[in-house]
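Protocol step 4 of 5: obtain the predicted structure for the target chain.
Materials: sequence only (see below). No template structures provided, no constraints applied. The aim of this step is simply to have a reference model before the mutagenesis design in step 5. Sequence pasted as it appears in the construct record:
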Amino acid sequence: MVLEFDSYSERKAFDETKAGVKGLVDAQITEVPRIFRLPQGTLADKKPSVSSSSFAIPIIDFADVHVDAVSREVVVKKIKDAAEKWGFFQVINHGVPLSVLEEIKNGVVRFYEEDLEVKKSYFSRDVSKSFNYNSNFDLYSSSSSCVNWRDTFACYMAPDPPNPEELPIACRDAMIEYSKHMMSLGDLLFKLLSEALGLNSEMLKSMDCMKGLLMLCHYYPPCPQPDLALGTSKHSDNSFLTILLQDQIGGLQVFHQDCWVDVVPLPGALVINIGDFLQIVTNDEFISVEHRVLANKAGPRISVASFFSTSMLPNSTVYGPIKELLSEENPPKYRDINLKEYSKGYFEKGLDGTSFLSNFKI
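Step 4 output (structure tokens):
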């Protein structure tokens, strides 16, 4: 009981600084505070057990996707393969200008390097606010054993984007511009994924899979003892699909065939992964895979995650496996669910390293 009370008090004290993990680093700490410390041996599996050259997430070139039907089919087949076997892939020649990718990363850095008083004005744990900055959404979740070494700001950019003045000046224009490109790329991805399922290209879009776009901009400060902490604990995503922009520092790992595989940063590439909701509606044909981010000394590491999900917005739609994919040989594996109900449980549970999907299996 004493330990638990200690942990809560220390989390609360950390939270009340409103300075996040960056505040600890700015204070020049040399040791990781105990609320961030992993149970011993957690990172014993840190390195992939096979050479990364023979075991890497697929890289798919979108250069020819609009050229002709044959070229598009080649891309669709690669997406199908990646979504079924890995749940992750990187895309190149995706149409988002390099300048837009660089500017959003710069905008994120500008925000986190702002004067603390400016950042404090955006600090909140109220998810109904249009723009939220804090450290660890699950800081007070009882099941999260340790706090992650990262700060985050979040904003829904669709279906109802915030008024520009609600966004910090440091990243305002960059967020607005970047989100437009994410909606455009998301539209293409959902068409290709629908085709990969053998369905009409508008199928997933017609189910409102890309109605909501939540942007999470992460800042992973350099960690004085990276073997004692995690940037992000293992989890799968509470989304239909996630598009991730990461910088060149690395640290993202995907769990594949019982080992952790590095997602090696590729200049100009975007990382795409299947979320829990897409695994449900495809009846396990596409897989939502656990992933994590290691802490590192080289930071700060910047990443921008765009989640296609309306999970925190009012949405009465009920989702279950797509009827066209079901048969006697392939009966439904999930009960119908309401995304709000799913997300409530997901957020209450926090990133505790367990899958929330299993609760909805038939």
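Step 4 remarks: The first strand starts at residue 59 and ends at 61. The radius of gyration is 20 Å.
Proceed to step 5.
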